[in-house]
Write a structure and sequence with these properties.
The protein is of the alpha/beta class and about 475 residues long. It has one domain: Glycosidases (TIM Barrel, Alpha-Beta Barrel). It has an eight-stranded parallel beta barrel, surrounded by five helices. A two-stranded parallel sheet has the order 6-8. The protein has a two-stranded antiparallel ribbon with strand order 9-10. Helix 15 links the parallel strand 11 and strand 12.
Length: about 475
């Protein structure tokens, strides 16, 4: 534990972040419909063709739904938060959480996505969760869409490729805003909205082989998400006065590999392509630099009258993001590549890597926070950051995860430096405060939590919760408002 004299701002929101499809389970209980995540099978590491297996084809879907494909679908099981939420929230409260980020599973509330009436059992579940959080003085931070597109919308419209889905999302959002207006004041629209261009099925329920021009489909689906986000931002402010609603980006700060202007230009372009999403959310319009990209890739965004005005008028209140790593760009095809789920780039020799090949860069967080605040002049919120690692349970049941403490400490130190630089940072929710199913690989072995869950990659285990060393460490961090690291 490092002791400093530097406190975080009063009211700083400390907590943790999760997603419904990675922890709830109960995928077919109380009227819930199928979501995109429920169709993602676990593939053992030695059988993977690449480090992630989250895209899906029409043939695979047909085999899954017919029962022909026999596999495990870990996101259907999660860690049984659905039945154990009181136990888990009590542990979060023991750590002193000020905020808990969770998502609503859209298909739990509107089973097919386009239902005219919501499923009361689904609404009641989240009522109970919010009540339990408030019992301990924990504010919910709620994501409306976190890789949980109802499969019914994929079947009917090919997910967000269909403009009809905007109206479905509006109905869903207005329903939950009205229902929870006295319980939730912090909202997010789409989790890591840039995922739709990396994995269209994960980010938007789009099956690429059902489209003639997959890249066009990604950006058209994205446009529909932009419009939907702006419309529900409008609705949130109308239904819940005083509420704050933001966007969310998977942020990867990209460095040039060398001072070679070609490397610098490549890094600049990578950063522009990453910040495009928050440019639209926070500035309210498509940036000019995207015109060339669209032209060179034969992409023509179909807009309806009024779309541009909607985007301009209803921008977000704050900008949130995940930060796990930085990337390095090189114009040269040579050079050792960094290995990481979904994201690659040239290996940075100045950085260490996690067990999964993600390059660890705490100072990059400070750089990124300064850049984003300069760019948007809106409050920022770091809503995902953490270390996926192998954890070992000792004979006495203890789990010594000093590597996780070290990772988090270094990132929190850089957050504080950024605040002293002048950045307006609302809070910090570390990813996976309790072990949960990995988004990209659907495995349990890749653990992030302060709380260990007895469950392995094959679904075996008691689901018993136990504290790691990082549990008491994070408790002291929160208790001291960042003075004790």
């Amino acid at each position: 534990m490092t002791i400093t004299n530097k406190e975080f701002p009063k009211g700083f929101l400390w907590g943790g972040a999760t997603a419904a499809n990675q922890l709830e389970g109960a995928f077919d209980q109380d009227g819930k419909g199928l979501s995109s995540a429920d169709l993602v099978a676990y593939i053992p590491k030695d059988q993977r063709k690449k480090d992630n297996a989250i895209e899906i084809t029409s043939d695979e879907i047909e085999k899954i739904l017919s029962g022909e494909k026999v596999a495990r679908y870990p996101k259907r099981e999660g860690i049984d938060f659905y039945h154990r939420y009181k136990e888990d929230i009590a542990l979060f409260a023991e750590m002193g959480f000020k905020v808990f980020r969770l998502s609503l599973n859209w298909a739990r509330i509107f089973p097919n996505g386009d239902d005219q009436e919501p499923n009361e059992a689904g609404l009641k579940f989240y009522d109970d969760v919010f009540d339990e959080l408030h019992k301990y003085g924990i504010e919910p931070l709620v994501t409306l869409s976190h890789y949980e597109t109802p499969y019914g919308l994929t079947e009917k419209y090919n997910g967000w490729l269909g403009r009809e889905v905007i109206g479905c999302f509006e109905r869903y959002a207005k329903t939950v805003f009205t229902r929870y207006k006295d319980k939730v004041k912090y909202w997010l629209t789409f989790n890591e909205i840039n995922m739709i261009t990396l994995s269209p099925f994960t980010g938007g329920g789009i099956v690429s082989d059902r489209t003639e021009h997959p890249l066009q489909a990604q950006y058209q689906g994205l446009h529909h998400q932009f419009v939907a986000s702006a419309l529900v931002t409008k609705a949130c402010h109308a239904i819940i006065p005083g509420a704050k609603i933001g966007c969310m980006l998977a942020r990867m700060e990209t460095y040039p590999n060398t001072p070679n202007p070609l490397d610098v230009r490549k890094a600049q372009l990578e950063n522009q392509m990453n910040l495009f999403f928050t440019d639209v959310h926070a500035r309210g319009e498509y940036p000019n630099y995207m015109n060339r990209f669209f032209k060179e890739n034969q992409i023509s965004i179909k807009k309806e009258d009024g779309d541009d005005e909607i985007l301009k008028e209803y921008t977000v209140d704050y900008v949130s993001f995940s930060y796990y790593m930085s990337l390095t760009a090189s114009a040269s095809p040579e050079g050792e590549r960094a290995q990481g789920n979904l994201f690659g780039g040239v290996k940075n020799p100045y950085l260490e890597s996690s067990d999964w090949g993600w390059q660890i860069d705490p100072i990059g967080l400070r750089i990124m926070l300064n850049d984003m605040y300069d760019r948007y002049q809106k409050p920022l919120f770091l809503v995902e950051n953490g270390l996926g690692a192998y954890d070992r349970v000792e004979e006495d049941g203890s789990i010594h995860d000093d590597y996780r403490i070290d990772y988090l400490r270094k990132h929190i130190e850089q957050m504080r430096e950024a605040i002293e630089d002048g950045v307006d940072l609302m809070g910090y929710t570390s990813w996976g405060p309790i072990d949960l199913v990995s988004m990209s690989t659907s495995e349990m072995t890749k653990r992030y939590g302060f709380i260990y869950v007895d469950l392995d990659d094959d679904g075996n285990g008691t689901l018993k919760r136990s504290k790691k060393d990082s549990f008491d460490w994070y408790k002291k961090v929160i208790e001291s408002n960042g003075v004790e690291l």
